[in-house]
């Protein structure tokens, strides 16, 4: 067991809850049809939306198993960065409070994923 277990569990829970819920309330299809297709991804919006959520589920499983952590982390970071660029950036920093639907949550998840991927910091081989 390594020092990232608690963070890996927390991120896995977030990724799973954010993904699985949308599978049962039509949220993924709505995101694909009503958002992604409308901003230029038609006719692939639903496919992209499902790909994002499936990548979250796979990443959550890999984080829990402590396998392919870098792959899972970097794919998820890419998705989060695209979410910032396409969805959240125009809404500012705050998710709630000083605004709504901003980037702060994605920013925190990216930082946590980087801490999981690089538990000893960004050391080069020579520094080890």
From TrEMBL:
Keywords, comma-separated and alphabetical: Cell membrane, Membrane, Transmembrane, Transmembrane helix
Top-rank lineage group of the source organism: Bacteria
Membrane topology category: Multi-pass membrane protein
Pfam family, one: DoxX
InterPro entries found in the cross-reference section: DoxX, DoxX-like_oxidoreductase
Residue ranges crossing the lipid bilayer per the database entry: 5-24, 44-64, 71-89, 105-122
Annotated GO CC locations: plasma membrane
Keyword Heme: no
Subcellular locations according to the entry: Cell membrane
Main location as per UniProt: membrane
Keyword Cell membrane: yes
Similarity remark: Belongs to the DoxX family.
Protein known as: DoxX family protein
Organism: Flavobacterium geliluteum
């Amino acid at each position: 067991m390594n020092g990232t277990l608690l963070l890996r569990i927390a991120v896995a829970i977030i990724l799973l809850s954010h993904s699985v819920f949308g599978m049962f309330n039509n949220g993924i299809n709505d995101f694909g049809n009503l958002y992604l297709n409308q901003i230029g991804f038609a006719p692939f919006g639903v496919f992209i939306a499902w790909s994002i959520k499936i990548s979250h589920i796979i990443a959550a499983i890999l984080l829990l198993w402590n396998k392919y952590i870098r792959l899972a982390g970097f794919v998820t970071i890419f998705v989060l960065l695209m979410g910032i660029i396409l969805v959240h950036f125009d809404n500012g920093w705050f998710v709630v409070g000083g605004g709504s639907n901003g980037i702060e949550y994605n920013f925190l998840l990216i930082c946590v994923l980087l801490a999981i991927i690089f538990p000893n910091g960004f050391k080069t081989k020579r520094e080890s």
